[in-house]
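Task: encode each sequence below as structure tokens.

Item 1
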Amino acid sequence: MTKLIQQRQYKKCIKEVVKLAKARNKAAEKAMKEYHKAQKQIERKAKKELKLIINVKKKCKRISNMAIKGFKNFKTGFDLRKSLREKIQLRSKNGGTWDLIAAVQQMLSLPFYKNEAAASGAVHNTARHEDALALVLEENGFLRYPLSSKLNRTETMKWINQPELSKDIPDGTFIEQPFGTHNAPDFIVKVDNNFVLFMEAKSSATSLHPTYNSGGVKQDLLYVFCAKKPNQTTIFKGDSIITLEQQRLIDEHIIEARKRDEKLNRKLKDIDPNHRGISYYTRPMIIQSGGASYTNYFIHQQRQQAETYALDWLKKKCKN
């Protein structure tokens, strides 16, 4: 009997040992899984941090390169502006000369150039229309004036009727695209404190008349227009194209259109269930129509008259 009890106790002990061993193995497997999981998380985090460090280093290097490049460009630009100012000062002391009339007459002989574009019709020629006009001004004694700061457009436009306000700009100099590439004029040419010319470069590869768009035609601007088909250049003053009365009617129409826009947009806002802010804007667009006799600036019956009028106006202004 005692032997039977001992055998049962022995078997029970064996079962307990096996059970404990299984539990220990299971715990060990679980611990190993947790360990591998933690190790993978650490590796992923390390890779992520390494990638972040690499990206930061790349960004720092890129910023550093940009700073170096910016400094070089600034230094080059600074040196160029300094050189130009010294050249202007030296000419002022030595009594240099410049001739606006000769420059504009030379512009009349220019071929076609694209505005702000690739190349002219001639190989190895000046690329941009603006560059060609700047070169002509330089060939006739005018020096490019480097601005030290941006011009105030409202105040600068007063120079047209009050040239004495431009006293800080040296005589015999020009400023190219003073208000950016998309705003008129393309050039401000300072003859002296009695006359400052505002000049706009226009060109067309497809049309025989300029595109004025919403900017309109400015009465007192000198326009220099070239076209690809005739490969010619013509000049005209703004008031040879549009009269003050025509401009007044257009201005009144624009004001009325703006008021109608406001009224319409209030109604659109009141019925906007999609909450998209739909609104409408009437954009002014100055166009020309009526056939070649109206729109071809190179065969127009008043072409010669417009060119002569512009030159006579310039001569009168330069003499005052």
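Item 2
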Amino acid sequence: MALRTYTVVLVLLAVAGGPATAAFAATGGTSGGSAAAASSTPGTPATGSAIATWFGPGLYGKQTACGQTLTKAVVGVANRTLPCGTLVQVTYAGRSVTVPVLDRGPYGHGASWDLTAGAAEALGVTETVRVVTHIVGKAANTPTLGLPPSASSTASSGGALAG
């Protein structure tokens, strides 16, 4: 009997959250929501092992889908469906870093995550690799999201971004 009740509760939760979660993901996540809702989006490898690539050179100075200007100093990830500002703990080869979702992608190599050059450097990633990810929270999506504290204070005081 307990298993049947548990199954019914899971089905009800899936039905109740399904359309809202899909609609939220379709907006790019810039108008609120929660990391918990994002982690239940079908097809999103929010927690677990997945392939990651890295990006940056050639894109520096351009804006991410979430509104940040990409520089070498920016530390974050791209994901096709998670809302901007979702905080993701990424682990590779014994190193771990918590970074925000800043962009959409990746769109090649069968990868689920695209690390910025800053995130790849922090993890020691130089090629396409398998990482472990966990959704750990949500940060406000601002133009300085993903910048190290020193670069972030320079940018907010009117100085130029590093890179």
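Check on item 2: The mean pLDDT is 74. The beta strands are 48-55, 77-78, 86-92, 95-103, 113-116, 129-138.
End of task.
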